[in-house]
Automatic annotation (TrEMBL):
Enzyme Commission number, as recorded: 2.7.13.3
Record's protein name: histidine kinase
Coiled coil: 114-141
Keyword Secreted: no
PAS domain sequence ranges: 314-362
SMART domains: HATPase_c (SM00387), HisKA (SM00388), PAS (SM00091), REC (SM00448)
Occurrences of domain Histidine kinase (ranges): 447-671
Catalytic activity: ATP + protein L-histidine = ADP + protein N-phospho-L-histidine
InterPro entries linked to this entry: CheY-like_superfamily (IPR011006), HATPase_C_sf (IPR036890), HATPase_dom (IPR003594), His_kinase_dom (IPR005467), HisK_dim/P_dom (IPR003661), HisK_dim/P_sf (IPR036097), PAS (IPR000014), PAS-assoc_C (IPR000700)
SUPFAM superfamilies the UniProt entry points to: ATPase domain of HSP90 chaperone/DNA topoisomerase II/histidine kinase (SSF55874), CheY-like (SSF52172), Homodimeric domain of signal transducing histidine kinase (SSF47384), PYP-like sensor domain (PAS domain) (SSF55785)
Gene3D superfamilies linked to this entry: 1.10.287.130, 3.40.50.2300, Histidine kinase-like ATPase, C-terminal domain (3.30.565.10), PAS domain (3.30.450.20)
Length: 694
């Protein structure tokens, strides 16, 4: 039944209007002035107001203006009664918000027609306003869910509280809440996640739940009928008086007049429901589609949030694994642009992600020239120069990543293998050294079997002769006995020297050969050495000593220097024809002692020069000239221990003209901390000068 408020200071008009309207079935209330009409309008909230214009104190225009300014009464249809028919009057009435005008005296049929039209218009306006409110609520719900799509679980519950407000307002409810369901021994129990309370309900006081009713809504556990209805996708709703008795008692204890509950289902599984208390059940047909759509949006959001949380957890685990790797990982776009580097990569190359991403410095580049289809994965080793200038070796596993047939990116995983490469290099050196030692062993065995056999045979045969013919040798034959003894002594000395040479090389190879420097006059040393060598030579060749000065002081190891010069002079004498003298020259060049040993012998073939100073190596043109191949190896070791250098220049004789060899040894006269390790440049310069002089 529509409610109509009549405001008029004329009692006859009021009664006439009341009778005519009541006869049409309307609920009519009368007010005799404007102030009383405003008070009754706020209390009754009528659907339509008929008000006289001309009234004392508060006239009809002022009443209309206040009614239209009221937030709740603004939609009330307002008919203004007037005897004023001027255009200006009607404009004033329209400006105040009047919806219709009736002129006095009032025609009953026109009045009723205007009232029916006004009530229809108000009903349409209310329906449209309600529909707009419901649609606005649904839009706001969806916006809230979209803004909370990447929230954590706690934040998501907070966002649900915000979306409950427009839903509760659209349902004209006193309270709205969202509950989650879980199975317990007592049955299905609800857990309220969030709730909203209306500040005020139109026409009814704000609900004040009693202390004893607290916690009853939703009931715990839920009635089985509700759970079955939810599982079927139905709703639980209606006026409380229409519920079964057991359920009605629970709801009445909470002072509820109506309830509405909609299920929340994720992947065909019931997970909870949304509830509304004291809602507009009369508008359920228009309200339910909006609430169902909102419930579906909430379910979709919860499903997406759960998936997003799982994805983020998976991504966090993946990122943690990537970032915790000691290997450096990088990715590139097909055009070579860096798209990702992990922390290990940045730490290793001491660069930030920003520096690496801008492409100005990229320590590693994929192999863009290979056949990616047939070789999607390759392994390669390469060296790189770090920002601090250090050269390091890396092993890279490079993979081309495809999406279908399209190349989408490259991924490379690298690790530092510098220590391994160094170990491999050391191993190769050790293997080479072992191979060299094996070769030395082979040469040594061959040399021993060859060089020791002849002197041992001489010793044995001479000893046998002495023993066998001891009584037959008269005193006059003492010279033959002496000759046999001298032969034994000579070959014994040679064998002793050979053993000493082997021991010397062994000490040098093991690093036990030391350089014990002592003051020494090189001129006197060379003069004495030449005298000793000439005695051994027995005048077959002759040794020429060339000195640039009468005295030259030095601090050297005399024993090692004797090994150097003795072996060089012995070789010069051995490989030179009889009657062809050799030379030993000593000079001083910038605090360096320079020795030249020159002969006019058979010379050294160029093919033998690279291995000339290796132990047991002999030149291919020595023929039957005896030797062990250890002399120059000993010279080389002694020179290196002194911190010097040795070089050789040689020309092989060809029968028509003699050859010759010059060996140049450069030794520091005094130990110097800043002495350059290599003297090759000075050796070459000195040798060139020597050749020019010759």
């Amino acid at each position: 039944m529509s409610k109509i408020l009549v405001i008029d200071d004329d009692g006859v008009t009021r009664l006439l209007l009341k009778r005519n309207l009541q006869m049409q079935g309307y609920d009519v209330t009368l007010a005799k002035n404007g102030a009383e009409g405003l008070r009754l309008a706020e209390e009754l909230r009528p659907d339509l107001i008929v008000c006289d214009w001309m009234m004392p104190l508060v006239d009809g225009v002022e009443v209309c203006r206040r009614i239209k300014a009221h937030p709740i009464l603004a939609t009330t249809f307002f008919i203004l009664l007037t005897v004023r028919g001027q255009v200006d009057d009607r404009i004033q009435g329209l400006d105040s918000g009047a919806d219709e005008f009736l002129s006095k005296p009032i025609e009953t049929d026109e009045l009723l027609a205007r009232v029916r039209a006004g009530l229809r218009l108000r009903q349409l306006t209310q329906q449209l306003s309600q529909a707009n409110q419901q649609l606005s609520a649904l839009v706001e719900v969806q916006q809230q869910l979209l803004s909370a799509v990447d929230s954590a679980q706690e934040d998501a519950n907070s966002s649900y509280i915000q979306l409950l407000a427009p839903l509760g307002q659209a349902a004209q409810a006193s309270r709205a809440y969202m509950s989650e369901l879980y199975q317990d021994q007592a049955g299905i129990e609800p857990l309220v996640l969030c709730e909203w309370f209306a500040k005020d309900r139109p026409g009814k006081p704000k609900p004040q739940p009693s202390q004893e009713a607290e916690g009853l809504i939703p009931p715990n556990p839920l009635p089985s009928r509700w759970v079955e209805t939810f599982h079927k996708g139905g709703i639980v709703g209606g006026r409380v008086r229409d519920f079964p008795e057991a359920e009605r008692e629970i709801l009445e204890q909470a002072h509820l007049e109506s309830v509405l509950m909609l299920p929340l289902t994720l992947k065909d599984e019931l997970v909870g429901f949304i509830g509304f208390e004291n809602c507009a059940i009369a508008d359920l047909d228009s309200l339910l589609p909006i609430l169902r759509a909102a419930a579906a949006a909430i379910c979709l959001h919860r499903d997406r949030s759960a998936a997003l949380l799982a994805l983020r957890a998976s991504e966090a685990r993946y990122r943690a694994i990537i970032e915790d790797q000691t290997e450096f990982i990088c990715r590139f776009a097909p055009d070579g642009t860096v798209t990702f580097v992990n922390d290990a990569y940045c730490r290793y190359f001491t660069m930030t992600r920003e520096e690496l991403m801008d492409g100005s410095v990229v320590p590693f580049r994929p192999d863009f020239d290979r056949d990616f289809v047939n070789q999607p994965v390759i392994n390669r080793e390469e060296s790189a120069v770090l920002p601090n200038g250090e050269v390091r070796w890396h092993h890279w596993t490079e993979r081309a990543v495809f999406s279908g047939d399209e190349l989408v990116e490259f991924q490379a995983v690298g690790r530092d293998i510098t220590e391994r490469k160094q170990a491999e290099e050391e191993t190769l050196k050790a293997l080479a050294k072992e191979k060299e030692l094996n070769q030395l062993k082979t040469h040594f065995v061959s040399m021993v079997s060859h060089e020791f056999r002849t002197p041992l045979t001489t010793i044995l045969s001479s000893a046998d002769l002495l023993e066998y013919y001891q009584e037959d040798f008269p005193d006059s034959k003492g010279d033959k006995k002496l000759q046999a003894i001298q032969r034994i002594q000579s070959v014994s000395v040679n064998m002793t020297q050979m053993i000493d040479d082997v021991l010397l090389i062994g000490h040098a190879e093991s690093g036990n050969l030391q350089c014990n420097r002592n003051p020494l006059d090189l001129v006197q040393f060379c003069q004495q050495l030449v005298e000793d060598m000439q005695f051994i030579d027995n005048g077959l060749h002759g040794i020429e000593l060339i000195l640039s000065q009468s005295s030259l002081s030095a601090c050297m190891d005399e024993k090692l220097l004797r090994h150097i010069l003795t072996n060089l002079l012995s070789n010069a004498l051995k490989y030179s024809p009889e009657g062809m003298p050799i030379q030993l020259e000593l000079c001083d060049r910038q605090n360096l002692a320079v020795f030249h040993v020159k002969d006019r012998g058979i010379g050294i073939p160029s093919q033998d020069l690279p291995r000339l100073f290796e132990p047991f190596q002999r030149c291919r043109n020595v023929g039957k000239i005896s030797g062990t191949g250890m002399g120059l190896a000993i010279v080389k070791k002694c020179v290196e221990i002194h911190g010097g250098e040795i070089s050789v220049q040689s020309e092989v004789s060809n029968g028509e003209r003699p050859g010759g060899t010059t060996l140049t040894v450069i030794l520091p006269r005094f130990p110097m901390n800043n002495l350059t390790p290599s003297l090759n440049g000075q050796v070459l310069e000195i040798c060139r000068g020597k050749r020019a002089e010759d």
